Amino acid sequence: MGDPGRVEGLEPYSVLGASRSDSPRALRRRYQELVRQLHPDRAAQGLGEGEREEQLRRFLEVERAWRTLGDAETRREHDLRARDRALQQEGPIQDSFSIDDMDWDDDQLEASRPCRCGGLFTVSAAEVRGPRGGEGGGEGGGSPPPPPPLLLLGCDTCSLRAELSGASG
Ligand SMILES: [Zn+2]
Fold it and tell me: What's the confidence (pLDDT) of residue 146?
């Protein structure tokens, strides 16, 4: 039965053979291609039982990966969670700067700063301002937690971490 650690760590991007920077359209194409290949109705012919099971297993993985990545919001949540996990695993903080040192992107509602490796540290408006800042998001009844005074950011390419100060505004 297996290898629970490995199943747990199945990364939806690698299941689809895609990468984090792929456009939604590229992801969809990749998904459709895999479903065509792996769909049980088609794959069954000419395969032994073990192979059939393997195909079915992969088909289900692809479906699950697509449930995460096929929707802009769940994809974003996934990316943030993956980044948080990476942050918890890594070692000491390598850099420190304030929000004013970052470049603001109005389209993405994100601030970014280049890392030494050529990758980017990014932080979203919601993370910086906390849930009460900006417009929208007035549906939760309780009192939202205050924004953290300090945020840890992870590079999207390497394992460097940085400390963002002055996030309280
Ligand atoms: Zn980096």
Answer: 52
pLDDT tens string 99-111: 889 998 888 888 9
Q: Which residues, chain by chain, have CB under 5 Å from ion ligand 1?
A: 115, 117, 119, 155, 157-158, 160
> Cα(118) to centroid of ligand 1, in Å?
6
Q: How confident is the model at residue 35 (pLDDT cuts 50, 70, 90)?
A: very high
| Share above pLDDT 70 across residues of the chain, in percent, rounded to a whole number | 76
- Cα(89) to centroid of ligand 1, in Å? 15
Write down how long the chain is.
Answer: 169
Query: Ligand 1 centroid to 69 CA: how many Å?
Result: 24
**Interior/surface letters 121-155, b for 16+ CB within 10 angstroms, e for the rest:** bbbebbbbebeeeeeeeeeeeeeeeebeeebbbbb
Write the burial class of residue 48 (CB in 10 Å: 0-12 exposed, 13-18 middle, 19+ buried).
exposed
